[in-house]
Amino acid sequence: MSASRYTYLGPEGTFTEAALRTLPEAATRELVPKVSVPAALDAVRGGEAAAALVPIENSVEGGVTATLDELATGTPLMIYREVLLRIAFALLVRPGTKLGDIKTVTGHPVAQPQVRKWLAAHLPDARWESAASNADGARLVREGRYDAAFAGEFAAATYGLEPLVTDIHDARNAETRFVLAGRPARPAARTGADRTSMVVWLRDDHPGALMELLQEFSARGVNLTWIESRPTGEGMGRYCFSIDCEGHITDRRVAETLMGLKRICPNVRFLGSYPRASADGEPPTAGAAPRPGTSDADFVAAAEWLARCQDGRA
Amino acid sequence: MSASRYTYLGPEGTFTEAALRTLPEAATRELVPKVSVPAALDAVRGGEAAAALVPIENSVEGGVTATLDELATGTPLMIYREVLLRIAFALLVRPGTKLGDIKTVTGHPVAQPQVRKWLAAHLPDARWESAASNADGARLVREGRYDAAFAGEFAAATYGLEPLVTDIHDARNAETRFVLAGRPARPAARTGADRTSMVVWLRDDHPGALMELLQEFSARGVNLTWIESRPTGEGMGRYCFSIDCEGHITDRRVAETLMGLKRICPNVRFLGSYPRASADGEPPTAGAAPRPGTSDADFVAAAEWLARCQDGRA
Amino acid sequence: MSASRYTYLGPEGTFTEAALRTLPEAATRELVPKVSVPAALDAVRGGEAAAALVPIENSVEGGVTATLDELATGTPLMIYREVLLRIAFALLVRPGTKLGDIKTVTGHPVAQPQVRKWLAAHLPDARWESAASNADGARLVREGRYDAAFAGEFAAATYGLEPLVTDIHDARNAETRFVLAGRPARPAARTGADRTSMVVWLRDDHPGALMELLQEFSARGVNLTWIESRPTGEGMGRYCFSIDCEGHITDRRVAETLMGLKRICPNVRFLGSYPRASADGEPPTAGAAPRPGTSDADFVAAAEWLARCQDGRA
Amino acid sequence: MSASRYTYLGPEGTFTEAALRTLPEAATRELVPKVSVPAALDAVRGGEAAAALVPIENSVEGGVTATLDELATGTPLMIYREVLLRIAFALLVRPGTKLGDIKTVTGHPVAQPQVRKWLAAHLPDARWESAASNADGARLVREGRYDAAFAGEFAAATYGLEPLVTDIHDARNAETRFVLAGRPARPAARTGADRTSMVVWLRDDHPGALMELLQEFSARGVNLTWIESRPTGEGMGRYCFSIDCEGHITDRRVAETLMGLKRICPNVRFLGSYPRASADGEPPTAGAAPRPGTSDADFVAAAEWLARCQDGRA
């Protein structure tokens, strides 16, 4: 039964699985790894699963384009949760392997820049070869194809390996943000520390079109947290924009902004409003304080004043 | 009975009276001249009259500050109509006076710049002295105090004078805009070629505050037609802003703009939405075409889309 | 010899004369009253005088349109100084007149709103009639035409009158700002607390044109202190803009703003940069602190960086 | 000798090599493949090569983050040329292999989304496994590890394979943009159809900071063609912005924009101005016409006018 099934970017032992397991409801769901972000999301689209957890942004590498583009196109999906996971790698080896024995290492291409300095310092002569995923790298080590794999420490048990070194991360504060996407339904409830995601296409490519788009946010005091040009597939230089802002679709300033975008853009895809997450169970950083005059109370007061003006009672 | 009484900036024979008489309902009203704009408006505030016609802008002299300031402060009034009157002066004299006899001329101070060139060309030696109004100048000519007065040709009969020269106006296209102000009630009906007037106070004097105010208009594609810094009376350098824009308070783009102003400004005084007038019975110049995405239909469609997003049906 | 002659808005005994006498150099100049702002300024244009002092703004009445429009058109003039004068009226009477004797009062029309409340409280039955200037009102009292005139206390001696009541002013902080205009030459030296005045015509009347104009200021962190739509004389609804901003033309942020305006507007008339004045000898209120990144040092550093980029040394 | 050596993202047979060979000077250079974008660029930084060609953007996948981030950090490099290459894949096999024989296919992960539909239609049962590069995939086919590889047709000869199917591309107009990066020196000469690239850090994370940044472009009529939030490495939610705009650093509107950014941002890295390329030898699409008032002639005229104002000759 699909309602009890969540897919995720697999295979087993990935950081995505670890992120998924931080969700309380994961304990009561069947967790099904998929070979790719599209496969994980298509399982939701097709009704095979209720939701899919996929990475969307990494504090070192930036946006995960496969996820951004899958959410931007095809059958609509919506984001209901985000999970923030601190990323640290373990160097997984077959039991008994020592550092000096390691001639080849593997891992997901995204892992490489995050362990590059550690490699240069500790295994300067080891040859890196990319694997399809960190977990897949672990499997290839198990099979003897490589001597060591960078992966989450939690993957060691799954693949019968040992963590030789742990907590490896070139960048401090390396984190990955994952989103739980499902079929469109009512957005997650407003918490007061929310994020809203969308994809916006511009009406045309006139100079200043992007400024007009952003003015819809700034005129209502809505803070952008993310913007990225994404290709529309119609050729080089044709973009849509993946945008995140602070606030919830039921916040009036956000609602008015979304309507403003809808009016000036040929296409706006609402991708959900959901609680902003934090890593390690800390409360989410408070967003920027809303600009004066942009609270729901301000909107209500202004609407009441307008009604009085229209009735001649102002 | 006040409902049948309109006041206007008198005395009899002013351009204001002529403007008032262009309104069809003037035929069935008691028209009462007042000595000043404040007096005309206070008669409305006090219930003595239903409405007052006062000049608000002259195409040569600019805004009529007495009117702007009276509407900005005190008991609120609202504008329901505007009248545009082409201004041309007649040189009024006692019967028998010839051009060569004229040593002194009078008229309202506002008339002077509009006849200055004509005076220099035709009566270079005549001495100008200001009168309290053009009509008052005519009265003073009648009484023999001056030889000639500049006033509307229609004032000749009232004061027993003759128009010696007519159609005098230094500036082509000299026009005065008058407004009919009454106590607050429902605004005039939307016509599609409307103007909305307001006075706006800024929250504080931070750099960019004026830009934020104007962004409320530009973000919704609402076209400003008039802006003037007006002193608040709190000292030099402290201003409020007299603003006119195209559109009607029931146009959604205007309504949202007004609410936006109300949210960011400590005080907004709505002065009415009313049909834009034209001189000489011509249809009013069409305003600028609304920016794409700012029609009422666009607003409705965007609101419906938002509702679908909030319901998970987008 | 014109270099030693200053004109001013007369007649003798006006506040303008009082303002002019606050300038140290006035002591060594021949001060010549003129009957109007245009006459005072035309004397400068014609070479008859070196400079003219005229009122430009009143904290109660707003801009002095005659001055704004004279400076906006015709042979260019430039502002080199401003003078701020606290305005309080004296009620001038012929020696021996008592309050109870006063049936008629006069004064400049601009004086009326500033003494209206005082009149209502102390001389409710007196009839007001406007004079061409406050000083002219004093003269008419001297001649017996009126019983009392509102004017500056300093005008009493000139016209052989007595100040019966002094320090009359409905509004607290009533001040008038005067400017000293001369033929174009190098602007006044930068003091760090300067004002720059200009008149700007828009390229066309497209929606947002005013916003584009103001963006030239906001993009460089230049603070507007005054904006007023002024008729261009080409018909109702056609305006140019009288604008003051903080800063001096030699401040780089102001210079770049002026060049930006010049590029997008068909006409910009620079009216001068000059020290901001204060009333009663107090130092001028410091303007808003410049936005970070807009000091001359920031401009110089950015230009040097650009040069390094262009030379491949950044 | 390094001046005669260019590196590129290898191995031999990649699209990058094909793009590099479209440059006339490539014929007289030693072309050295490197295993990664960082390796190719570091060879330039270290003086081993004069320049490196690396992919920066794909019309299907978007920005190449390895390149964006390498250029944003570390020892500065500058872009002198761009090359646009139409991307179509060939299915390379060992001689004699038929479509029905193919059980496993490989290629660079970026190739996968561009051939996914073709695969689903023609080889629905083939298993995909990623290779480190398209060329590396070809090598692995040569070695017998996979049955077929997606790569450029030009790679067939290098690896002793046969193109079984050619011109495979799911997306029409698939193109990749490559940049030739060298050590900082004078920018490429202005051609009139140029692009300028930069990375910009914001002063702080206040709401509207991004708007202020973009206003520097819009206020001077400079058209953005690309913007992407890139992580700064200081933690989730901390971004710099990779930005491309139309125009050349010696275009005055671009120069003033860059200086404006430099003034308000704590860090701006100029990455070069260079001719906009087109695919297949077509002339580059003309950029948007510059906004009126933003040509070099307009800037020069405005500067001359400013000088006249400052000299009192305006």
From TrEMBL, chains A, B, C, D:
PROSITE patterns: ACT (PS51671), PREPHENATE_DEHYDR_3 (PS51171). Residues 5-183 form the Prephenate dehydratase domain. It catalyses: prephenate + H(+) = 3-phenylpyruvate + CO2 + H2O. InterPro entries: ACT-like_dom_sf, ACT_dom, Chor_mutase/pphenate_deHydtase, Preph_deHydtase. One of its GO terms (cellular component) is cytoplasm. Residues 198-276 form the ACT domain. The keyword Endoplasmic reticulum does not apply. It comes from the Bacteria. It holds the Pfam family ACT. Residues 276-295 are annotated as: Disordered. The keyword S-adenosyl-L-methionine does not apply. Homodimer. This is Prephenate dehydratase. The lineage of its organism: Bacteria, Bacillati, Actinomycetota, Actinomycetes, Kitasatosporales.
